[in-house]
Amino acid sequence: MKTALVTGGSRGIGLAIALELGRAGYAVAIMATKPEERYPQSTQRLRGAGVTYSWHAGSIADSADRKRIVRETVAAHGRIDVLVNNAGIAPRQRNDLLQMTEESFDEVIATNTKGNMFMTQEVARQMLSQESGVQTRGVIVNISSCSAEVSSVNRGEYCVSKAGISMLTRLYADRLAPEGIRVYEVRPGVIRTDMTSGVSGKYDRLIAEGVFPIARWGTPEDVARAVRAFCSEDFAYTTGNYIDVDGGFHIRRL
Questions:
Q1: Which of 26, 39, 158, 203 is labelled catalytic?
Q2: Tens digit of pLDDT for each residue in 36-93?
Q3: 131 CB-near residues (< 8 Å, 6+ apart)
């Protein structure tokens, strides 16, 4: 059985990805900031779907935690075939670019960009150490955001962190293609999760005004299906690609 390591897998988009890959036949190692018992509804859904999974608590921003969780995943499942870099945070407080603090910038970058970069490095090394009798030795999918391209001046650190993930995708796709490891990026738009709950009124209004060609909220499952597609062999002659899961928001219109 192939194994997928999903960071930030306790709820929202990460949990939907874990469920989708589990149903597709993967054993899933879930990395979360808190222990499994803190998320009874999530574990109930995983068990109800028959997903083979393990739970690993730690911080993606912490080097020791990253290394430990890769070791624990291999100990639990024997190998890692897919990494989904989903873990991410928004600024604790939305501030205008001219009031943004260095502390907020450092915190967001440490989780969203630095954590992504060095978790990918750690898992890629593990993938290269594994026996592989097939052309594809591994798949890495980075969850970024439409904010990689769209300016939000009251959360600049988030935009910068997601734009960095886009370059990390290209860099690792370039470096790892000769090794048989493919790397992709998924850019969600407005997805109904805990992260967007505090600004739901704003997005309800934008949807009603027709800003999004597909006039509805996105769901975590919309993102999860795109991840599962990238993990399949249907895209075996591609790497470094991204897909917008944003209801067409990226389309420029007059």
A1: 158
A2: 999 999 999 999 999 999 999 999 999 999 999 999 999 999 999 999 999 999 999 9
A3: none
The single-letter DSSP state of residue 13 is H
Q: Which helix (DSSP H) or strand (DSSP E) does residue 76 occupy?
A: helix 63-77
Active site residue 158: yes
**124 token code pair:** 């890629």
DSSP secondary structure code for residue 187 in this structure = E
Tell me if 14 sits within 8 A of 40, measured CB to CB.
Answer: no
Q: 253: exposed, middle or buried (C-beta count within 10 Å: 0-12, 13-18, 19+)?
A: exposed
Residue 10 carries which DSSP code?
A: S
CA-closest candidate to residue 125, choices 75, 179, 88, 87: 179
Phi (first) and psi of residue 25, to 5 degrees: 105, 5
Start-to-end Cα distance in the chain:
49
* Amino acid identity for residue 221 in this structure: E
Q: In angstroms, rounded to a whole number, what is the distance separating the alpha carbons of residues 155 and 148?
A: 12
Q: Report pTM.
A: 0.96
Q: What is the Cα 21 distance to its own chain's centre?
A: 13
Residue 217 · residue 190 · CB < 8 Å: yes
Higher pLDDT, 132 or 78: 78
DSSP for 116-167 reads HHHHHHHHHHHHHHS---SS--EEEEEE--GGGTS--TTSHHHHHHHHHHHH
